[in-house]
Write a structure and sequence with these properties.
Organism: Vicia faba (Broad bean)
Number of strands: 22
Strand order of the largest sheet: 14-16-17-18-15-19
CATH topology of the largest domain: Methane Monooxygenase Hydroxylase, Chain G, domain 1
CATH class of the largest domain: Mainly Alpha
Mean pLDDT: 72
Distance between the termini: 121 Å
Structural class: alpha/beta
Number of domains: 5
Radius of gyration: 43 Å
Shape: elongated
CATH superfamily of the largest domain: Peptidase M41
Membrane topology: Multi-pass membrane protein
CATH architecture of the largest domain: Up-down Bundle
Family: In the N-terminal section; belongs to the AAA ATPase family.
Helix content: 40-55%
Subcellular location: Plastid, Chloroplast thylakoid membrane
Keywords: ATP-binding, Chloroplast, Hydrolase, Membrane, Metal-binding, Metalloprotease, Nucleotide-binding, Plastid, Protease, Thylakoid, Transit peptide, Transmembrane, Transmembrane helix, Zinc
Largest sheet: 6 strands, mixed
Length: 804
């Protein structure tokens, strides 16, 4: 068969050029050269300026040829308007089947579009999404639906009248129900069909073209005659009406007038019609599914990063497309070393295998929210040259039992297929809570089946599968013990809040990453010292808040004061500029905060190294606080709290209440709500957990109540002795707090000048700090009662008898 047999019918071609003559050359095995016969010049060549689009609706049999080539010759306009040489020719080569043949169906599923030709380049055709083609396919789908509806109406055309002629010779007219009753009562109806509230009737033969007496009848007859004359070859008229639901059908009158009536027989052709209708709708649904590639299969949770061909399209990167590495992680050096070892094993497994070592099956990252668990996992994904599958444990939980276990199987099957690979499950406690003990309130079959499947998959790895599971949680105490045993999660990596050195490293990472311009007075070490207890996420937010504050003030650099304000925002909330205290409330809050400052300074004078008051404010904060006393932490990190320091903190917390009692003669306010709550919590822990009570001794009340630390969940029966112990704890807590309040009262009474002077200045200025504050605090004296209370020399924790 010659190449002439493979030709294109007249088609429309759009080429990226002007005044081009286009010739299509077909060849077999690419043996036909350009400008050689057989050549067929295509008609209807419409030219666009910016792009070339091929709308090939012809019958080209691309399955039987190797390809075809377009040779376009002619002048091409340049930007300056000058034409190039007419002898310039360009070729665009199309691979077999790329024009929409069956061999390329799989590629079309990636997106709806066309093959586009760029005449300015020598590259092969590229597939680009075309919205017009998408609209055409939607229109074709609507056309298919219309064809199906028309076919169904043809198969089941309606309800014929008894003994009626074919539908093509019948004209249906809709009339009011009152007209139907009038015809029945006047004996003018010959046949009636009742289908629920829908009624079709035919008049007697001598009335089909006759005159009606009533005006409405005359109008209907005139309309009927005009329709009968206009619609040929209609032979008769059938009237339709709808019966109101609260009116009965006049069957008695029909029997009296000998009217033939009945209901439609829906069984006629029922099987054939139903079968054909079902086939048509199934064909329509199949066509839609095939056209739009709709899939109802359950998606496996998790997205794959770092395929060997690059990062998959399903993953999300940062806005700039950055990849997080271990260089972006600071403050958690021990955890980073553990994960670096795992990445190294996946990169160079021979170094460990020859020594008989195997990689850990799983690594559990445990830490408070914001300590960097997910960040470490992202760093592993950025460092590892193996597929990294990440998902959340909540993706496994479904309404239907069994879906969670199925998704776990699919996830691990995907990981084994991509091995060596890493699976990261965030918030794993969502599906891995303990099945026994106090954490099992009610039975949950779905979660238990998911957990069982997870245990099986983690324990069913081959030693050579090289699939490692990373888990992250902030509630390791609720996890099932079977999940934590060696062979599943071999390593548990604890991520704690960073120390001063770690905070400084984290701040440097965020400052350098954001390229933050810092003023000369900013020293990262000072900021790290004033952020004791901050997590990595808190520090990242701190740097961002400082930059926002500087930008709000139109600064070109970020100054130290911006970081200090950002720290205060994180600790106490945002200052409310529009909400201010008025009247007596302003004076009460000012004396309250002055009381905290006076008592706190007295405690710091007896305990060197304690934080000192640096700032007082009575501007309301967004966190609900009406006042704010800021005591920045010391330069060193503290991990232990001694008994005298604990008692000193209790006295400081109750200093505001003591100042209100002294200044306002016992007329206290509710402003000490948060102070009392924090002091009560601290006193209870000192007695019930820390064992700092001389009366109760070193006893952990919570462990005693839970029946030990075996985590069996069994509770000790609530007996008489246990009730007495709890009552004794409550009495000790109350006595300790009462003693702390009495000591705070003695300090306030010993410094009336400082309390009143500082309170008045704070009431006037609303904010006191720096030297203005320190000149008052240098006058504070500490009474003997404070030293006695902090040393704990009294035999019982009864209220101290003060001399004043």
């Amino acid at each position: 068969m010659s190449a002439l047999d493979y030709y294109l019918s007249p088609s429309t071609i759009y080429l990226h050029s002007h005044s081009l003559k286009s010739n299509f050359h077909h060849w077999r095995n690419r043996r036909v050269a350009p400008n050689s016969s057989p050549v067929r010049v295509l008609r209807d060549a419409n030219l666009l300026k910016d792009f070339g689009r091929f709308n090939l609706w012809s019958g080209l049999k691309l399955n039987n040829i190797d390809g075809f080539r377009i040779a376009a010759s002619g002048g091409q306009e340049t930007d300056s308007g000058s034409a190039s040489s007419d002898s310039e020719s360009k070729e665009v080569e199309v691979e077999p089947g790329s024009g929409g043949s069956g061999s390329n169906r799989g590629k079309e599923k990636q997106g709806k579009g066309r093959w586009w030709v760029d005449s300015n380049s020598k590259k092969t055709w590229k597939w680009k999404w075309d919205p017009w083609l998408e609209a055409q396919q939607v229109a074709v789908s609507l056309l298919q639906f219309g064809i199906v509806v028309s076919a169904v109406r043809f198969i089941r055309p309606g309800i014929p009248l008894p003994g009626s002629e074919p539908r093509s010779s019948t004209l249906f007219l809709s009339v009011p129900y009152s007209e139907f009753l009038s015809r029945i009562n006047s004996d003018q109806v010959s046949k009636v069909e009742v289908d629920g509230v829908h009624i079709m009737f035919k008049l007697k033969s001598h009335l089909d073209g006759g005159e009606f007496s009533s005006s409405s009848s005359n109008r209907l007859q005139v309309e009927s005659d005009s329709l009968v004359k206009s619609v040929a070859p209609t032979k008769r008229i059938v009237y339709t009406t709808t019966r109101p639901s609260d009116i009965r059908t006049p069957y008695e009158k029909m029997l009296e007038n000998e009217v033939e009536f009945g209901s439609p027989d829906n069984r006629s052709g029922g099987f054939l019609n139903s079968a054909l209708t079902a086939v048509l709708f199934v064909a329509l649904l199949t066509g839609l599914l095939h056209r739009y590639s709709i899939s109802f299969s359950q998606n496996t949770p998790g997205q794959i990063r770092n395929r060997k061909s690059g990062i998959s399209a399903g993953t999300k990167s940062s806005e700039k497309g950055e990849t997080i590495t271990f260089a972006d992680v600071a403050g958690v050096d021990e955890a980073k070393e553990e994960l670096e070892e795992i990445v190294e094993f996946l990169r160079n497994p021979d170094k460990y295998i020859r020594l008989g070592a195997r990689p850990p099956r799983g690594v559990l990252l445990v830490g408070l929210p914001g300590t960097g668990k997910t960040l470490l996992a992202k760093a592993v994904a950025g460092e590892a040259d193996v597929p990294f599958i990440s998902c959340s444990a909540s993706e496994f939980v479904e309404l239907y039992v069994g879906m969670g276990a199925s998704r776990v199987r699919d996830l691990f099957a995907k990981a084994k297929k991509e091995a060596p690979s890493i699976i990261f499950i965030d918030e794993i406690d969502a599906v891995a809570k303990s099945r026994d003990g106090k954490y099992r309130i009610v039975s949950n079959d779905e979660r238990e089946q998911t957990l069982n499947q997870l245990l099986i998959e983690m324990d069913g790895f081959d030693s050579s599968s090289a699939v490692i599971v990373l888990g992250a949680t902030n509630r390791a105490d609720v996890l099932d013990p079977a999940l934590l045993r060696p062979g599943r999660f071999d390593r548990v990596v604890m991520l704690e809040t960073p120390d001063r050195v770690g905070r400084e490293s984290i701040l440097k990472v965020h400052v350098s990453k954001k390229e933050l311009p810092l003023a000369k007075d900013v020293y990262i070490g000072d900021i790290a010292s004033m952020t004791t207890g901050f997590t990595g996420a808190d520090l990242a937010n701190l740097v961002n808040e400082a930059a926002l504050l500087a930008g709000r003030k139109n600064k070109v650099v970020v100054e130290k004061i911006d970081f200090i304000e950002a720290v205060e925002r994180s600790l106490a909330g945002i200052e409310k500029k529009t909400t201010k205290l008025q009247g007596c409330e302003k004076g009460v809050v000012a004396r309250h905060e002055a009381g905290h400052a006076v008592v706190g300074t007295a405690v710091a004078n007896l305990l060197p190294g304690q934080p000192c008051v640096q700032k007082l404010s009575i501007l309301p904060r967004s966190g609900g606080a009406l006042g704010f006393t800021y005591c920045p932490p010391t330069n060193e990190d503290r991990y232990l709290l001694f008994i005298d320091e604990l008692r000193g903190r209790l006295v400081t917390l109750l200093g505001g209440r003591a100042a209100e009692e002294v200044v306002y003669s016992g007329r206290v306010s509710t402003g000490a709500l948060d102070d009392i709550r924090r002091a009560t919590d601290m006193a209870y822990k000192a007695i019930a957990e820390y064992g700092l009570s001389q009366t109760i001794g070193p006893v952990s009340i919570s462990t005693l109540s839970n029946g030990g630390m075996d985590e069996s969940g069994g509770l000790v029966p609530y007996g008489k002795d246990q009730g007495q112990l709890i009552d004794l704890v409550q009495k000790e807590v109350k006595a300790l707090l009462q003693s702390a309040l009495e000591v705070a009262l003695s300090i306030v009474r010993a410094n009336p000048t400082v309390l009143e002077g500082l309170g008045a200045q704070l009431e006037e200025k609303e904010k006191v700090e720096g030297e203005e504050l320190q000149k008052w605090l240098r006058l504070v004296v500490a009474p003997n009662e404070l030293a006695i209370f902090m040393e704990g020399k009294q035999q019982t924790l009864l209220p101290l008898k003060t001399g004043s």
